[in-house]
Amino acid sequence: MCEELFSGFSEAGWDEAPRDAEPTFTPEELQILLNPALSVAEAADRVCRPPP
């Protein structure tokens, strides 16, 4: 019965949660994220949004 309940998850991509993948950052992004002068929100905005 367990196999019936959980069949198809791998085919649909549900066998691995997005949080299981480790994030990767460039050296420039790490500089921004580790800058103590920036708040968490400011750092996230700078990393997630490309400069104008």
Describe this structure in words.
With 52 residues, the protein is an all-alpha fold. It contains four helices and no strands. The longest helix has 9 residues, at 40-48. It is elongated. The model has no long low-confidence stretch (mean pLDDT 77).
The low-confidence runs, each spanning 5 or more residues with pLDDT under 50, are none
Distance between the termini: 55 Å
Share in helix: 40-55%
Query: Helix and strand string, N-terminal first?
Result: HHHH
Please give the number of β-strands.
0
Largest sheet: none
Percent strand equals under 5%
Count of helical stretches: 4
pLDDT averaged residue by residue: 77
Shape label = elongated
SS content category = mainly alpha
Radius of gyration: 18 Å
Quaternary organisation: single chain
In short:
This protein has 52 residues and is mainly alpha-helical.
Topology:
Elements: H1 2-6, H2 9-12, H3 27-33, H4 40-48
Task: Supply the key terms.
mainly alpha; 52 residues; elongated; single chain; 0% strand
